[in-house]
Amino acid sequence: MSTDPGDRLPGLVAEFLRRHDPAGDRLGFLRARFDAGLAWVHYPVGSGGLAAPRHLQPLVDDEFARVGAPDNRPRRNGIGLGMVAPTLLRHGTTAQRDRLLRPLWTGEDIWCQLFSEPDAGSDLAGLTTRAVRDGGDWVVNGQKVWTSLAHRARWGILLARTATDVGKHQGITCFVCDMTAPGVQVRPLRQLTGEAEFNEVFLTDVRLPDDLRLGGVGEGWRVARTTLMNERVAIGGAPAPREGGLIGLVARTWRDRPELRTAGRHDELVRLWVRAEAARLAALRLRQQLATGEPGPEGSAVKLAFAELAQRISGFEVELLGEAGLRHDDWTMRRPAETDLLTRTATHRYLRARGNSIEGGSSEILRNIIAERVLGLPVEPRSDR
Ligand SMILES: Cc1cc2nc3c(=O)[nH]c(=O)nc-3n(C[C@H](O)[C@H](O)[C@H](O)COP(=O)(O)OP(=O)(O)OC[C@H]3O[C@@H](n4cnc5c(N)ncnc54)[C@H](O)[C@@H]3O)c2cc1C
């Protein structure tokens, strides 16, 4: 029998489907899929995988999708799946991985990212939330802001300062924050769209046991870099079919509504279509590169392209639709469980896209990263290193 995982995987999936009914209990099915190593095939055995090459994952996903198997609702747990899981894999202890990865993958546990603070966004290493050791616990005090999904999250990945007598990048430690712990207070922040996807989070004498520390004391910056690099790939590099996403919506409107067409708009649509396709192919290439390792600074380029395109395409859509493009569907403050821009109005897409060039690293910062770490241009003078 072949030992090549690429040859073995189809048989393993077929065998799994013989034993588990995709139309049966959803959660039971997902848990069993994780236990069989068919969640993330490139993760270690016992952590949802089979230690197989990463590029084989789509083969497994496609086969489960083909038989209509339930998915783990990735849009509900984007931070968990896209950013926390690779961070736990790289920096977590075996006990942490055993405890946290399965309910993360099945979607039972939603995760949030407690990084940004009122005075520490782009300059993340300037954060002031403190964690002080007290016996077997850490006591955390501080404030986080723009925390997407905190109101739904069971766990948060938290950065806190544990030393002040060293350089600012050295004095940070990463924790898994129990969002149900006493002292964690989550307050909604309303956005331009009218919705409150994100929150302020106040941490007052929150006690976290030391076994929720992720990585070594003072090594939080290294852990955060893993999360941030994966964040850029998760936001900018998500798989999309040709003419998928926002450009697909606009192209469909163009085909269905000849009365909206003008020569100038035609030129602009073609320009956007070509850029969207180039961005999609760049993201595809990035995912192929990822199959052989960790995301590099190139992830910043796809995130940057995604943000700029989303703003331009959504702006074009609003203009194309004229008055109708300015009609927003709902201004009541909602807290949606899933982000699905494609089912909302053009106005909603336009307004929500403003945040794309801020969240996950602002476009200015990403341009700095590309200039310095991808293109090797001279670095900006910095006083904090
Ligand atoms: C929709 C949305 C969701 C978010 N979700 C989360 C979340 O779940 N968890 C979380 O922790 N954070 C989250 N954020 C926060 C986000 O990561 C920060 O807003 C972002 O990193 C920018 O930081 P800041 O807002 O403090 O802006 P600042 O750092 O104050 O920057 C202000 C402006 O100055 C520019 N600037 C700053 N420094 C430089 C420099 N050195 N060179 C050039 N330009 C510079 C910036 O690019 C920006 O244009 C979210 C933000 C948004 C919009």
Automatic annotation (TrEMBL):
Required cofactor names: FAD
Gene3D superfamilies to which the protein is assigned, alphabetical: Acyl-CoA dehydrogenase/oxidase, N-terminal domain, Butyryl-CoA Dehydrogenase, subunit A, domain 2, Butyryl-CoA Dehydrogenase, subunit A, domain 3
ATP-binding is among the record's keywords: no
Domain Acyl-CoA oxidase/dehydrogenase middle as annotated: residue spans: 112-206
Keywords: FAD, Flavoprotein, Oxidoreductase
Entry-linked InterPro entries: Acyl-CoA_Oxase/DH_mid-dom, Acyl-CoA_Oxase/DH_mid-dom_sf, AcylCo_DH-like_C, AcylCo_DH/oxidase_C, AcylCoA_DH/ox_N_sf, AcylCoA_DH/oxidase_NM_dom_sf, Mycobact_Acyl-CoA_DH
GO MF, one example: flavin adenine dinucleotide binding
UniProt keyword Iron present: no
Domain of life from the UniProt record: Bacteria
Gene Ontology CC: plasma membrane
Domain (Acyl-CoA dehydrogenase/oxidase C-terminal): residue spans on this chain: 218-375
Family to which this protein belongs: Belongs to the acyl-CoA dehydrogenase family.
Record protein name field: Alkylation response protein AidB-like acyl-CoA dehydrogenase
Organism the protein comes from: Plantactinospora soyae
